[in-house]
Known about the structure:
By secondary structure, the chain is α/β, with parallel strands linked by helices. Helix content is 36%, strand content 24%. The chain has helices spanning 76-83, 88-93, 102-106, 110-126, 142-158, 181-199, 216-228, 245-252, 265-274, 282-287, 296-301, 322-333, 337-344, 346-351, 379-382, and strands at residues 3-16, 21-25, 29-33, 36-41, 49-60, 62-64, 129-135, 162-170, 204-209, 232-237, 256-259, 277-280, 306-308, 369-372, 389-394, 397-398. Strands 1, 2, 3, 4, 5, 14, 15 and 16 form an eight-stranded mixed β-sheet that branches. A hairpin with a 2-residue loop joins β3 and β4. The chain is globular. It starts with a strand and ends with a strand. The model has no long low-confidence stretch (mean pLDDT 95).
Amino acid sequence: MSKIKLVNIGKIATYNSQTKVVDSITGSDILINDGIIEKIDNDINENVEIFDCQNRLVTPGFVDPHTHPVFLNGREEEFGLRMQGATYQEIAEKGGGINSSVNGVRNTSNEELIALVTKRMDRFLKLGTTTIEAKSGYGLNVESELKSLEVLDLVNQNHAIDIIPTFLGAHAFPPEYKNDRNGYVDLLCNEMIPAVAGQGIAKYCDVFCENGYFNVKQSRKILEAAKKHGLIPRLHADEFEDSGAAELAAELGAVSADHLMAVSDVGIAKMAEGNVTATILPGTTFFLGSTNYAPVKKLMESGIDIALATDYNPGSCHIQSMPFIISLACIYIGMSVEDALRSATFNSAKTLNLEKEVGSIEIGKKADLVIWDLEKLIEIPYNVTDVPIIKVMKGGKFIF
């Protein structure tokens, strides 16, 4: 067993699952035993390897619970079109958007996709993200969706970051089903979901439930089929319009409803009743040049837990930095820095059913830590685009 002790920590900023608040701990060292936090105390006298934090801030590693990293090329041309005034929906109607990434995934080898995803995971770790949810969804047929999940699994086996895979075959209707949408829903339910379950990689099934994409009836059918095959539901919900997706998330017991920029008061009430976490993606609003951020204060006042995520993808949000997402949450949504930290760590881990393993600095949890060239938590959002990280520790080992 390998032990290491972090000493001279300025502050430990972490959510405390016992007191239900974000603590700011001073004067304590952290003893790590074989990758697990063994002690947090000011009197640890064991003779082990020492790392001097030089009075710096230590936080948990970030947990990013909504990303789309399996793609070939970026969609910079769409960014340019939006700069000229085109909307996301207008671009999609003209053949852009999600479907423009489909050919890339379908026609690219596993090896090339593995290399690309590995590089993207390196970047996430450098930015302090130690656990990540990653979706398929740019294949949109049986073969390519299974390929995308296999790529995520192979990267996960060989990379320090922890990747939690989600099946998102219901991301859009592929070109060959443009005029037969219910036929694609049948394919998802009767062939794709059984094949995904048989493959055994994906833990969750997501659906883009939105007007113009999968309606509530179609989404319910897909997610009920997924539940029968052991996949846990989560939803893209009410991103552009109130489509009733938040209510569906509550009805089906989804772990998370994501986006929610257009969620209704009824949807919020149903989510609160169903204990559905709201995963908020302010980077998407920012990247699309919108000012329509999700109503986080109303969600929080209703007792709904908030998770924060990047929504990293090639089209609508090419952002990998959770520290920047925290800045957006503090500046544009009005979250306190303590709430934002909890939402980017512990609450995000809850949406992946990992809150007993990661997401906070507590005894018995994985030593997934970030050591900052900062003294105070408020300096993370204050620095906005600068990410002054000294070290990232994953499972008790320093990675960057």
